[in-house]
């Protein structure tokens, strides 16, 4: 993978400083230097000590990322919402893990991506999952296609510049039009799976907007500002508004909803290389839409 930059300064500048200005992570630069990559200026090999002149063309050639043998390739179908050189947006169905586990080592979004990468013969075969979803949550996931894109997306996450919005059906009908749930989340004392609101937990902030009210529930739009495990599920349950179908947190199965009624319907961020605003939406899955139609 090649990344090209033109030095547009008016004075000579050492290449090392130029790479810092471009906010290239130090770990990435080390991988270029020591793992088979290359740095060129005007198509000639150089080191980071090279003195750039105005209008010089800098090319960074990243080392090829060989896939991990522990991730088993799967040829099961994958719903790709968008793809370019640097990232993919995947629409995940219910019942599919984001990454493999000990109990499910061979079918997850990551396994299917590996099969897809192999079919496409992509040089970089490492799977970089940026935003995960729970097994039974549907909707959009962001996948970086190489380590530099992953680093830039992680930076946007840390800086609160990557927006994730969800649609959820709560069994509680009455909600304010808008609000914040600012309640720390910790692991439950009696379980390695469930989480709970606790003053000793990690900070967790969720914003919500009421979209519609029904006789047996409400449709909410929610935005995450932190990424705690089960954050939306825990926060809604804490307010006695567990997701329909979320039996783990006090919800109940209802009509056709045999899973937590949660869907990631929007991702928004800036492209890691062009800086263009990117916005992706995915309509509700059939089971959630059917519940709404029946109510």
UniProtKB/TrEMBL annotation:
Name of the protein this chain belongs to: Pseudouridine synthase
EC number, as in UniProt: 5.4.99.-
InterPro entries, alphabetized: PsdUridine_synth_cat_dom_sf, PsdUridine_synth_RluA-like_CS, PsdUridine_synth_RluC/D, PsdUridine_synth_RsuA/RluA, RluA_PseudoU_synthase
Keywords annotated in UniProt: Isomerase
PROSITE patterns: PSI_RLU
Catalytic residues, chain numbering: 134
Annotated GO MF terms: catalytic activity, acting on RNA; pseudouridine synthase activity; RNA binding
GO biological process, one term: enzyme-directed rRNA pseudouridine synthesis
Limits of the Pseudouridine synthase RsuA/RluA-like domain: 86-238
Known catalytic reactions: a uridine in RNA = a pseudouridine in RNA
Similarity remark: Belongs to the pseudouridine synthase RluA family.
Function, in words: Responsible for synthesis of pseudouridine from uracil.
């Amino acid at each position: 993978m090649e990344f090209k930059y033109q030095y547009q300064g008016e004075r000579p500048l050492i290449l090392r400083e130029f790479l810092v200005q471009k906010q290239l992570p130090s770990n990435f630069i080390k991988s270029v230097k020591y793992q088979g990559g290359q740095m060129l200026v005007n198509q000639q090999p150089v080191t980071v000590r090279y003195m750039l002149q105005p209008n010089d063309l800098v090319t960074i050639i990243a080392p090829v990322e060989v896939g991990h043998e522990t991730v088993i390739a799967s040829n099961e179908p994958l719903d790709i919402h968008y793809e370019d050189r640097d990232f993919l947006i995947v629409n995940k169905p219910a019942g599919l893990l984001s990454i493999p586990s000990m109990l499910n080592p061979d079918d997850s979004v990551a396994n299917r991506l590996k099969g897809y990468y192999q079919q496409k013969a992509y040089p970089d075969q490492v799977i970089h999952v940026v935003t995960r979803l729970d097994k039974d949550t549907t909707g959009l996931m962001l996948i970086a296609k190489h380590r530099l894109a992953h680093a830039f997306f992680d930076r946007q996450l840390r800086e609160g510049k990557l927006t994730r919005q969800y649609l959820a059906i709560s069994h509680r009908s009455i909600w304010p039009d808008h609000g914040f749930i600012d309640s720390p989340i910790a692991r439950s004392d009696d379980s390695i799976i469930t989480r709970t609101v606790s003053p000793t937990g990690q900070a967790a902030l969720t914003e919500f907007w009421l979209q519609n009210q029904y006789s047996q529930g409400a449709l909410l739009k929610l935005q995450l500002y932190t990424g705690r495990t089960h954050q939306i599920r825990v926060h809604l349950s804490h307010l006695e508004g567990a997701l329909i179908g979320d039996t783990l947190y006090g919800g109940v199965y209802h009509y056709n909803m045999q899973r937590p009624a949660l869907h990631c319907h929007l991702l928004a961020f800036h492209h890691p290389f062009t800086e263009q605003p990117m916005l992706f939406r995915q309509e509700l899955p059939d089971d959630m839409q059917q519940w709404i139609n029946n109510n």
